[in-house]
Amino acid sequence: MPQGHQFLVLGGAGNVGQWAVHELARRFPESTVRASYRTHGISKPPDHWKALRNVEPVEVDLDDPKSIDRAMKGTDRVFFVPQNTPKQLEHDRNILRAIRSSDTVEFYVRQSAYRAICVPGSACNFLAMHAEAEAALADSGVKHAGVRPNCGFANIFFLVLPSLPYGGVRWPWPPDLRLAHVDPRDVGAIAALLLATRDIDQRNGTQVRVMGPAQDTARGIVDLVASKCRVEASYTQIPYEEFKQSLIQGANMSEWMADGAAEVLRAMEDACTTGELYVDDTGADGVMPFESSVGRPKHSFRDFVDFFSIPAAYERMRQHSNENPNY
User: Fold this and answer.
1) CA-to-CA distance for 82 and 44, rounded, in angstroms?
2) Over the stretch 250-281, which tens digit does the pLDDT of each residue have?
3) What is d(CA 73, CA 89) in angstroms, rounded to the nearest whole number?
4) Domains along the chain?
5) Which ranges of 102-239 would DSSP assign to H, the alpha helix?
6) Three-state secondary structure call for residue 136
7) How many other CB atoms are there within 10 angstroms of residue 287's CB atom?
8) Under a CB-based contact definition with an 8 Å cutoff, are residues 282 and 290 in contact?
9) What is the model's pTM?
C-alpha cells in the first residue's frame, strides 16, 4: 500500500465521509487525513476521530474558493461527498477548479449515486446534478474515480424515526417492496481503498458500485426500528404527491428538497422492482470485490441499527415531537 499520503476528505463528518476518514486513518497510519467537519453544517468532528492520531480536522466553506484552496494545500488525494443542496453543482465546480489549479493533487474520488437513478435529465434535481458533475469531471482531464452507492441505511432510517412518535409511517412504497440499501461504513471503506490506490492510471475513470443486500422489506425496516425503540408502528402506503406534501408541511422541508426526495423514492421503487438495484455480495462492479478488498462482510441493516444508538435517537425525536406537536 502507498506510504505517506496527504489525504483530504471534503464532507468528512457526514454519514459516509466520517467512515472514509476512519478507514484511511486506520489503514494508513503513516499518512495524514485532513478532514472537513463544517463543510455540511456539522459543528464538531465525530467523537470516534479522537482516537485517530493522524486525523487533522479542518473547517471548509465550499462557497469560498480560498477556503477550499487552503484545505487542499499540500494534499495529493481528495475525496468529496457532496451534500444535496441547490448549491451542489457550484460546490463541485469550486472543488474541480481547486484540483486543476493544484500542483500536488494527483487523484480525485467523488461520491455520486447509483447509475440506475443518476442519469442526465433525471426528474430528481440533485441526482441530475450528480450526472452533470460526473460529465464535467470526465471532460476535465483530472485523474479521478467515482463511488456510486445505492441508497444508504441512514437515509432510510431517518425516514422512519421522525414518524414513530406519531404512531406510524406513511410511505409511498408498497410494504412488501424489498429494498437494496447499504451501510455508510461500507461505502466509506470502499472509498478509502479507492482513494489510496497504488495504480491511479488503472483506476482512472472507474465508477465503483457499492451495493447493499436486498434483505429488507419496507414494512420490515419500519418494524425493526420500531421494535428497537419499543414502540408499535403502523404502515400506510400513500401516493407520492401526498408523501411530498407531508415532507413540506410536516417536516418543514423545502420544496426543492421534497421534490428530490420523492423522486428518489420513486426511482428506487422502479429500480428495486426491476432488480436494477440488486446485486450479489461480489461488490463493486467486479472491480473491487467487497469482502476480499475490505476484509469483512458487508453490514446488514440490523447491524446498523445495533451499532448506532437508535433508542437514544428516538427519545430525542420523541421529546422534539412533544415540544413541537405540529411538526
Assistant:
1) 18
2) 778 888 888 888 888 888 888 788 776 654 44
3) 22
4) 6-150+183-210+280-294 (3.40.50.720)
5) 125-138, 153-160, 184-195, 200-203, 218-228
6) helix
7) 16
8) yes
9) 0.89
